[in-house]
Amino acid sequence: MRWRKLKGSFVLGLLLAGAELSTASSRGVQQVFVSEDPCSSIGGKRWAYPSAVRSCFQSFPVDPKLKANIIEVINKTLAFHTSTNYQIRAPEPFSSEVHEDVVGDLARISKQPYTSDFDLHIDLSRTLKRLNDGHCVYINYCYDALFVSYLPTPLVLLADSNGVQNVHIAPEAFSVISAEFQDQIGYWEDALPENLSLDQLSGAKVLLIDGEDPWVAVEANAAITGGYTAYGTRQNSFFSSYSLTSNGWYYVMGNFAQQTLPLYDSRNLTIIPVNSSEVRTITLPYRSRFGDLSVDFADSASFWDNNCRATIGTNGVDLRSSSETELADIYASVSKLEQQPRISFREAWQHRMNVYMDARPTGDMDLPAMLQPSKKPLNGSQGVAQFYMLDDDITGVLALGSFSSESFAELQKSLLVGLTSLKNSGATQLVVDVTNNGGGYICIAHWLHRIISGPRASTVPQAGLDTTTRAGPLARLIVKQVISGADSNYTSSYDPTQWTFANHTPMPEGYDWMASPVKTVINGREDAFSQRLGQECQPFDMRPPADPLFDPRKVAIVSNGRCGSSCSLFSITMAKEDGAKTVVVGGKKTVPQQYCGTVGGQSTGFFHIDTEIKTAGLKNHSLAPPDFLTNSVQGITWRLGYGIWDTEQPEEWQYHPADYNLLLTNATVNNPVAIWEAVVAEVLS
Ligand SMILES: *[C@@H]1O[C@H](CO)[C@@H](O)[C@H](O)[C@H]1NC(C)=O
Ligand SMILES: *[C@@H]1O[C@H](CO)[C@@H](O)[C@H](O)[C@H]1NC(C)=O
Ligand SMILES: *[C@@H]1O[C@H](CO)[C@@H](O)[C@H](O)[C@H]1NC(C)=O
Ligand SMILES: *[C@@H]1O[C@H](CO)[C@@H](O)[C@H](O)[C@H]1NC(C)=O
Ligand SMILES: *[C@@H]1O[C@H](CO)[C@@H](O)[C@H](O)[C@H]1NC(C)=O
Ligand SMILES: *[C@@H]1O[C@H](CO)[C@@H](O)[C@H](O)[C@H]1NC(C)=O
Ligand SMILES: *[C@@H]1O[C@H](CO)[C@@H](O)[C@H](O)[C@H]1NC(C)=O
Ligand SMILES: *[C@@H]1O[C@H](CO)[C@@H](O)[C@H](O)[C@H]1NC(C)=O
């Protein structure tokens, strides 16, 4: 890209694009054709046309050096991802959902030419997304969510009084957009016919999207959105939902109304507005808003410099020579796209995490006031954990938006205080709402399972899943370095003192736990994993109650299916071992709904793996990934949990069918209290 900076104009960009210049010369135009810099028209703008954002993105040709770098980093990082060979064809029942040979596809991408760096990015991003694994995701902040494109019509799937499901514009659509997009309302109003206004769209039944059955669009999204193995769960991402964050109840627009890349300019909707029988077809343009995490720019050169180069937190650090303040700064930017509150380096390093990763910004769009719980949150409520008692005075509710929190200890305490108070107040049954809960601290998942279910075979000593980690040659070398003293002030994930044997007894200091890896063949490829690891969370640093707080069979775990990572560890052990009920809300009736997904065991990313490699003094090893040159992130599953029903196979691809699929109506959709009451009526009574 350097030549572009030196030139300072866009003449060469046009030469590459070709078309306009040749038109100019064929007309015999004598002037030097200097186009405007395609990035300067969107630089400094809060709102832009998706087409303008696209022109900026597409103006950068592929730089072979950067392309090779990205592919090498991803490829060498994947050697630490537990699931690469499984995902070539996932075990049944998910073989038709996951069949991506990612290493093979990287080889294809290396050879394939692309019109622009943006086109290369789309192929890379979608290739990784085809793993349908929210832990193993490739993000490049140069493009992903740099601008986020919105429509004013989040969609929902509602059942009518006969239980027939139809796609609708969310009844709350106008409340949401008039609070969030005040400055764009007029723009969208202008796109509508004169006798139709934006507020009249709320609740409308959607007959067609772009002239076709709405399910065509739902399925097109499910095919490329990634993140979850199960088809039903990926379908659900199309629709709007809510999420409890450390800053309150947020609205999630869904993939139809919110896109992280500017690929669509507009959508046609054929609708019947509420209280009308007239079929209307409207065209609504997407508007692209500058992302909250994007760095301002003025032109192509500053766009690239500010947003596309590796930055603080992209690459790992050698912990042997990093100060606490340096690490704090770095970590602030590392966890930015993980679905969790910002946490400190020390918390993240001390408490192992299992977190879903998404280019979708967690956003800051409030759930409209009329949909927020009007009940007062009870004792123990804080941040992502809120406790309520329903009007029946026997159903307690734990709304848990995440298993992460700025402070591990505070979240741990809040769960104990909140559930104990609910029990003391007379609650005999419990609804746990984990809608859009992308996981977090592994040991919080174990803790929550243990305190609800009490001490029993499924919770003591192991309240989660046994695991294994990939034992590639470089991983094994890191263990050797760590046990011979390369560890720093922060305990390495490769340090044996972090782990227990399969029988849950701690590994001794200096023990080479990867000396004899378990060799196996998966989908015809040779692979190697560590010995089976037991639990590492107990004894907890807080004393759990001697008795169960709730009868687990009277616990209903509720979500839109998008409960991943540590949220899966919690739900699976509660459901499969202790008989908790599982409920998905709003899924399509005819499609099997899974109550969770993206199980993993422990997730991490390039930054952490690179930190392990650098701290072990192995960065010069031929298998070590180089530093990223671009503003990129590669996530991986670092430990993979063994199954509960089939204890010798990963839980990741075992079945997690929800006991109930609670259809949403215009009275319950995106209304947490109404959903909890419906769950009590259908599931807990
Ligand atoms: C990826 O790594 C494997 C070794 O693990 C190597 O055989 C392959 O050539 C690499 N692919 C690319 C595209 O570099
Ligand atoms: C809500 O759904 C019911 C039953 O399907 C219907 O009669 C009513 O008109 C709907 N109300 C709105 C505002 O869409
Ligand atoms: C709105 O205008 C269109 C044509 O401009 C007309 O066909 C339609 O009947 C009008 N609808 C209402 C509800 O006024
Ligand atoms: C949307 O409708 C317009 C006419 O109003 C049409 O020109 C366009 O092709 C349609 N787009 C799609 C994707 O159906
Ligand atoms: C539809 O009609 C009902 C009954 O007249 C009214 O209560 C409701 O507010 C109307 N809804 C909309 C969106 O106009
Ligand atoms: C690690 O320990 C060394 C020596 O005790 C100290 O100088 C250094 O600042 C520590 N680093 C961190 C990140 O705590
Ligand atoms: C809630 O907390 C208050 C103050 O800590 C305490 O007095 C009260 O007993 C608690 N309520 C329950 C139900 O535990
Ligand atoms: C890697 O190799 C280079 C050149 O041989 C050397 O300068 C550097 O110190 C080495 N780095 C490490 C971490 O060993």
Description of the molecule:
It is a single chain. The protein has 685 residues and is α+β, with helices and mostly antiparallel strands. 30% of the residues lie in helices and 17% in strands. It contains 20 helices and 25 strands. The strands form eight sheets. It has a six-stranded mixed β-sheet with strand order 14-15-16-21-22-25, with helices on both faces. A four-stranded antiparallel β-sheet has the order 1-12-3-9. Strands 2, 18, 23 and 24 form a four-stranded antiparallel β-sheet that branches. The protein is globular. Mean pLDDT is 92; it is low at 1-33. The structure holds 2-acetamido-2-deoxy-beta-D-glucopyranose (8 copies). One 2-acetamido-2-deoxy-beta-D-glucopyranose binds at residues 160-161, 203, 274, 666. Residues 210-211, 268, 283 line the site of one 2-acetamido-2-deoxy-beta-D-glucopyranose (NAG).
At the fourth level of CATH, the homologous superfamily of the domain at 385-465 and 540-600 and 643-684 is 2-enoyl-CoA Hydratase, Chain A, domain 1
Spatial separation of the terminal alpha carbons: 64 Å
Question: What are the segments in which pLDDT stays under 50 over at least 5 consecutive residues?
Answer: 1-33
Total strands: 25
Order of strands, main sheet, comes to: 14-15-16-21-22-25
Strand coverage percent: 15-25%
Kindly report the CATH topology of the domain at 385-465 and 540-600 and 643-684.
2-enoyl-CoA Hydratase, Chain A, domain 1
Radius of gyration: 25 Å
Major beta sheet summary: 6 strands, mixed
Shape: globular
**Overall helicity:** 25-40%
**Number of discrete helical segments:** 20
**What's the architecture of the domain at 385-465 and 540-600 and 643-684 in CATH terms?**
Alpha-Beta Complex
Task: Provide the structure class.
Answer: alpha+beta
Average pLDDT score: 92
* Highest-level CATH class of the domain at 385-465 and 540-600 and 643-684: Alpha Beta
Bound molecules: 2-acetamido-2-deoxy-beta-D-glucopyranose
Keywords: Signal
Signal peptide: 1-26
InterPro entries: ClpP/crotonase-like_dom_sf (IPR029045), S41A_metabolite_peptidase (IPR052766)
